[in-house]
Design brief:
Blueprint (H helix, E strand, L loop, with lengths): L12 E6 L12 H4 L9 E5 L5 E7 L23 E5 L6 H10 L16 E2 L7 H19 L7 H15 L2 E6 L2 H4 L3 H7 L7 E7 L5 E6 L1 E5 L8 H4 L7 H15 L7 E11 L11 E3 L5 E3 L7 H13 L5 E6 L3 H7 L5 E4 L2 H13 L5 E3 L16 E2 L8 H13 L5 E5 L3 E2 L9 E2 L4 H11 L6
Parallel strand pairs: 1-3, 1-4, 4-5, 8-10, 8-13, 9-10, 12-16, 13-17, 14-15
Antiparallel strand pairs: 2-3, 6-7, 7-10, 11-12, 14-17, 18-19
Helix pairs in contact: 2-3, 3-8, 6-9, 8-13, 9-12, 11-13
Length: about 450
């Protein structure tokens, strides 16, 4: 579905969002109190009119002092009856977040089961740029659909098809290098990781816009990760359809940028190294030493640390163009989840101004990120005796940091580099975020770009 607001109509029913403990609007009368309405989070009270019809509704927002614990509380409104509703927001509710919540709450993944959203529609809250909110929801819906689709229907061929469809929609160009052609194009690590799979590995290169500063986005596209010859246990494979979450988020971000007109003021390049990490006689092996596009050699100490290998070639390719800003998005390490949990992805950046802009924007738009350090003191951990780099340092500590340090070696040459170690999955359903695939970091990037690349994104 395409998320959208309802057109304005005089027949729209009022929907009052209220904080717990705050006085209700004059229109409430005695009914909410007599029916036991306390405005706890997600609680709905329908307001009857004199003839027994529906005059409006109240939606509880819970305790104002605990509001930071819950994002997108207005998504609870999608439980209302069908019809068109006009939201009225109390002081302390960000209208942009409320508007986005009303759209995100309508997301349904229905490819295999269930029906599309057929619930209430909402007018856009006053003072909100409706087109910009729609763009964010549309990009997020795309990301979720891609992650939620299982690997038998979202292999490298399918992810390429999705990328081509989006490129056609937004007027972008696409170049794909696949199979043995990766070797001819000097993308050897992408080839090594993906050569064991039935569907060929590939590098998808999307370009949009012709003028202005250059933003390059690199998204990890491991459509399924068995772990390779260092095979994962079965329990660890259950979510590995989401290991292309970086590529899915990159495509969702591209859609947001296109729909907000960013391509009129900047050059956007999206690089997606896309593989399936499978097991066959052609699998790359523990102990192999691979030579990367950049010429750095990499000792493979674990074939389950494959994401950084394919990202390395793509980052090296992107850096050759010296973009003003290069961002990598990847479901890269379990260490990031141990450190910060599933909802708070770490990001790494050496430029303080860029990092500060991202941190501030992430808080404003409720797309949380937390800055972690490119800690130079751990560089020696990724330097093995027989090669330039080690893809899986021993010791089991600082795994997200050492992975980021590994990637930074290949991003050298870009103006500024940001790496985001995302999770891409909502473990427990929450307002506007059903259990399943979820975008992380894209809206924060969109919001931060005016400060990071001035005069590009309004």
């Amino acid at each position: 579905m395409i998320p959208d607001f309802a057109p304005d109509t005089a027949d729209a029913l009022p929907l009052w969002a209220v904080w717990k403990g705050d006085p209700l609007p004059d229109q409430a009368g005695p009914w909410p109190a007599s029916s036991g309405f306390t405005a706890k989070l997600g609680e709905i009270c329908l307001l009857p009119d004199a003839s027994g019809g529906l005059a409006g509704a109240f939606l509880g927002l819970g305790d104002r002092a605990r509001a930071n614990r819950t994002r997108f509380a207005l998504a609870h409104a999608t439980a209302l009856s069908k019809g068109v509703w006009r939201p009225a927001l109390p002081e302390g509710v960000d209208p942009d977040e409320a508007a986005l919540a009303l759209l995100l709450g309508q997301y349904r993944f229905t490819r295999y089961k269930g029906t599309a959203y057929d619930g209430p529609q909402f007018l856009c809250p006053q003072g909100v740029d409706a087109a910009r909110i729609r763009a964010q929801a549309a990009g997020e819906f795309l990301t979720r659909d891609l992650i939620n689709t299982p690997a038998n229907d979202m292999g490298p061929d399918d992810l390429e098809a999705a990328a081509r469809t989006l490129a056609d929609e937004v007027g972008a160009s696409v170049t794909v290098t696949a199979g043995p052609d990766l070797l001819d194009a000097n993308l050897p690590m992408i080839h090594a990781v993906g050569r064991a799979a039935e569907q060929a590995p590939r590098l998808i290169d999307i370009r949009l816009g012709n003028d202005g500063p250059c933003l390059t986005i690199v998204g990890k596209g491991v459509c399924f990760d068995t772990g390779g010859l260092d095979l994962k246990p079965s329990a660890s494979m259950l979510l590995m359809k989401k290991d292309m979450g970086g590529a899915a988020t990159a495509l969702g971000l591209l859609k947001m940028l296109a729909l907000t007109g960013a391509a009129d003021r900047m050059r956007i390049r999206v690089l997606l190294p896309v593989v399936e990490n499978s097991v066959s006689a052609a699998s790359f092996r523990p102990g192999d030493v691979l030579t990367s596009r950049k010429g750095l050699t990499v000792e493979v100490n674990n074939t389950d640390a494959e994401g950084r290998l394919i990202l390395a070639d793509a980052l090296a390719l992107g850096a050759e163009e010296s973009p003003d800003l290069m961002i990598s998005l990847a479901t890269l390490t379990g260490a990031a989840r141990v450190a910060l949990g599933p909802d708070l992805p770490p990001f790494y950046c050496d430029d303080d101004a860029t990092a500060d802009a991202l941190s501030r924007a992430a808080m404003v738009v409720r797309d949380p990120l937390w800055r972690m350090p490119f800690w130079d003191g751990y560089e020696s951990q990724i330097e093995p005796p027989i090669a330039d780099l080690d893809n899986a340092p021993a010791g089991g500590m600082a795994g997200s940091v050492t992975a980021a340090l590994f990637l930074r070696r290949f991003a050298e040459g870009s103006g500024r580099y940001v790496h985001m170690d995302i999770y891409g999955w909502q473990q427990v359903a929450a307002p506007g975020r059903p259990k399943g695939g979820v975008g992380q970091g894209a809206r924060a990037i969109l919001a931060a770009l005016p400060a990071i690349l001035p005069r590009t994104v309004s």
